[in-house]
Amino acid sequence: MTACIHDHHAFGPARWGADDRIGAGNLLTPERRLAALAGVSTGEAINLDHIIDANAPRIEPNQTPFVMTLSPRANSVIRRRRAAGATNDAGTTLERIEMTTHVGTHIDALGHASRGNTLYNGLTVDETVDDFGLTELGIEHLPPMITRGVMLDVSGPEGLLRPGDVVTVDDLQRAEEVAKVDVQEGDVVCIHTGWGRWFGVDNARYVSGEPGIDVPAAEWLISKGVVAIAADNPAVEVIPNPRADRMLPVHQHTLTDAGVYLIENLNSAALASRGCHAFCFMLLAARFRGATGCPVRPVALL
Amino acid sequence: MTACIHDHHAFGPARWGADDRIGAGNLLTPERRLAALAGVSTGEAINLDHIIDANAPRIEPNQTPFVMTLSPRANSVIRRRRAAGATNDAGTTLERIEMTTHVGTHIDALGHASRGNTLYNGLTVDETVDDFGLTELGIEHLPPMITRGVMLDVSGPEGLLRPGDVVTVDDLQRAEEVAKVDVQEGDVVCIHTGWGRWFGVDNARYVSGEPGIDVPAAEWLISKGVVAIAADNPAVEVIPNPRADRMLPVHQHTLTDAGVYLIENLNSAALASRGCHAFCFMLLAARFRGATGCPVRPVALL
Amino acid sequence: MTACIHDHHAFGPARWGADDRIGAGNLLTPERRLAALAGVSTGEAINLDHIIDANAPRIEPNQTPFVMTLSPRANSVIRRRRAAGATNDAGTTLERIEMTTHVGTHIDALGHASRGNTLYNGLTVDETVDDFGLTELGIEHLPPMITRGVMLDVSGPEGLLRPGDVVTVDDLQRAEEVAKVDVQEGDVVCIHTGWGRWFGVDNARYVSGEPGIDVPAAEWLISKGVVAIAADNPAVEVIPNPRADRMLPVHQHTLTDAGVYLIENLNSAALASRGCHAFCFMLLAARFRGATGCPVRPVALL
Amino acid sequence: MTACIHDHHAFGPARWGADDRIGAGNLLTPERRLAALAGVSTGEAINLDHIIDANAPRIEPNQTPFVMTLSPRANSVIRRRRAAGATNDAGTTLERIEMTTHVGTHIDALGHASRGNTLYNGLTVDETVDDFGLTELGIEHLPPMITRGVMLDVSGPEGLLRPGDVVTVDDLQRAEEVAKVDVQEGDVVCIHTGWGRWFGVDNARYVSGEPGIDVPAAEWLISKGVVAIAADNPAVEVIPNPRADRMLPVHQHTLTDAGVYLIENLNSAALASRGCHAFCFMLLAARFRGATGCPVRPVALL
Fold first, then answer.
1. Closest residue by Cα to residue A181 from A38, A74, A98, A278
2. pTM score of the predicted model
3. What are A206-259's pLDDT values in tens digits?
4. For residues B140 and A51, is the Cβ–Cβ distance under 8 A?
5. Mind telling me how many Å the CA of A119 is from chain B's nearest CA?
6. In chain D, helix, strand, coil percent, each to 5?
7. Which of A63, B110, B149, D190 is a plausible cystine mate for D230, CB 3.0–4.6 Å?
8. Under a CB-based contact definition with an 8 Å cutoff, are residues A275 and A32 in contact?
């Protein structure tokens, strides 16, 4: 299906140095921020996320359930504070959340994926995957992501691809032509397959497989110098993979080999329906130390 | 200490309508975004957060522990994928997190605080505080926060206030003068007390009390039309309150009465040391449905 | 369907005093323990539980997911201990569990169910249901349960009842006759409906409804003085209730009014297939303070 | 300090076969149950556990926090059920618990401890320690534990040993003499050091170290054929170990080599103060599949 001749040495140490921990995050320069902001004209912000709740789809068993309940609650807190002498009845309600960071719209940290024992930039699973978090390559290293976003609509005439449909380099190039944009170094590419319509609507279908890029398209995007690849599907890449003996090879080529980030479960519906192809992309991931990702709320600023 | 005559009707329904759920979030207009972005000159981004881990301080018992462990892990996943026929040894590691959204640097949702049974805009605890989240006023309603940030350094000659030290209107006005900025409608005000130096360094001290604003200073900021008040302390407001029978009155005046947001455990050290007093403030909270807040990673863009 | 004239005053304060917190647990006397043990002849122990894992059925949304993952793990721990100077490579593995106590085979604490604001023995939800546990009536009050167990097989000629099938007083009395046992004060009655066969096998069916007792049968058992009613179904009682406007009325009559315990998701298959109708019943619930129940591993000792 | 020449082959495969998964659990025979029950005279049950709550001491970081909050709650549930048409206002309250099974009084599963990559009976960490539980040697394999319990009081004239105090074979033998019991095959030995007095009272002290047995005493007990060793301390064994380069060697000799169980944080105060030295010991661990232990509520039946 694909003759992937991947030169592992084109990335990693040779590119940003042996101590690098952020990969393509190095491309998130002040200059690119300024350039992206320069394109903002109306100040409108489009949400690129889905709201997260217990109904968020998940790929079992690796993505564990999201559970949220409220505790403590205003009424009980007021009761305790009265007992402690307060008269202003200040109630405060908090919640407890049980989650993986890969819930809902999220970004993968570089340490999320491995090729055997190998992680990004020559680090190893054995030394990096520790009990209470990644000792390296956790999401806390990710810089603020404010750069150009490019939306490539590959959803085709029906506005919807199907599981196993491979988004090819040709597909991406055609989408570039329609969009009248060229993918450039430092971009976040948002691939719209149409599959996101099932998020939270028909979760069983949504996670049963997905249309997405395979390794050649990933390599092409990597060669363009993108910071991150986002898509409106659970794993960015096509599932099942055309090669039956491959699972998540795009994760390996992007995160592990190239240090390029993946943003999953993107909500690209509004971008697609409005035909927004270039915009200022903003993503500020909460810095959970050693986490393998982060639920995020990316926005497109127009 | 303070004769607070607060007109509840000046805010809430009278201001943004009976159906309003976002309070001062209404001030986050495209125009303000454009204005804030217009002031960006170098593209440098300063992190305004602390990294979140099990060592994050917390106010017990309401703020429950943060627990994060890695599972599944690359090695086990590879083993299972081999058994399923895969040959490319794609490992993926995820984590499970147990947390409250009020961990680390976070923003409070409007529904976080009550005055007795009353929440923002006439909603009630009884109807809004439900088992699995707030039915209204959850953090998912918060718009992308991209607006002007103003840092007011009230840390004084020692660079550090003490628990119970009240930040007064005079203090804020003096800080405005030094900063050569006037707090304006739509601003996020970042109050630097110096107390943040103990975050993660001496947690017992950090949560034992705090310097911060009391109701008059909150009212003054609200009267200026701020969107949010941020501070480098656990609760924005002074603890213990000068009035022994008051607990968290500023939470009530800001969140409950005025619909103004609070951002806690801000990391304002870099802003203060560099003397950055006005900047583009960005905060994109992940949209957990019904959550009473969100851990965030705000940045100042210069 | 049933004209339930329930005299609330027959139970509660009038029976074991206004300070009572254990209800029918008062019947768990040393004398009854000795009597139950006196019937043990072979020493064989039959498990009356289902093994608990992520596949345990649950009634959504109240029964939240069970999530278990291993952390820390022997390999990582050994690495850290080596770094700390240890040479004996002692690995230890632990796990983290997220659960409700109502997972799998479990016992309900008296404070689990209410009639409006009323809990067992005149306590109130408002005062007892606190943020971090029940202030009264939590499972920690339950004495060790070592008493006579009686299995009543009501599964009928097909060995299986269906959702909505009501187990009546007649059914129980017929089962008594077959079993040649009379339900007596202090007994734990184990009702075998056959429904338990779907536990973990067809969870969607298992929780879609259930055969079980309705209020009259519960009242009859209460009048006999049972300590607990156990059944091989999710809620002991018939669901849906014959009266469309009633939900969980048996919970109210047993736990709330009478202080009689419920044991759910019992695994009574072995008892039924072997025709064990009387035995020594043992249940030792871990004492989680303020918990509304406890996952347990009851056994029948023959 | 001790020249431990341990013959690994005396246990494991040579004893109960290559497929054995329960080790000394094989000694929990019906005959021993009957013998233990035969000694019961009054029917009194003494709790041997501590109540579990957020204040339970824990050895950080391996033993993660215990967090419990109530959700859903009766009031909210009643509101929803009314909306669904119910008129009987049946409230039900549940809780969510985040925990490790090693909280409070608990039993260790055989798979909890390793000697390098080796687990009990030749199993390996690599194959057995999986993401969602132990594939073998989890606590679900433990039979109901109803056997003779023997309490050996080694607390000395002050009723309290100190961290690092080694409980020797001589100490145990002297305690046997005082108790007028001989440790026999199938017994659960409960060692009272007095250290348990700090559980929940001074947690920092309680986990700062502990008096307990070292390898020779463990070997002696193993040679007697005990099923389990329980103690009123966090790890049964002395900490710090007299040999500075050893950590938890008793865990390895008991769980890993010999298949003998450990029961930690026992509450032996009542046994000691009353001088109960032999009794019927009962422990029924909830069967969490693949768990490395279980919080329990053991009792002594007199």
1. A278
2. 0.96
3. 999 999 999 999 999 999 999 999 999 999 999 999 999 999 999 999 999 999
4. yes
5. 9
6. 30, 25, 45
7. D190
8. no
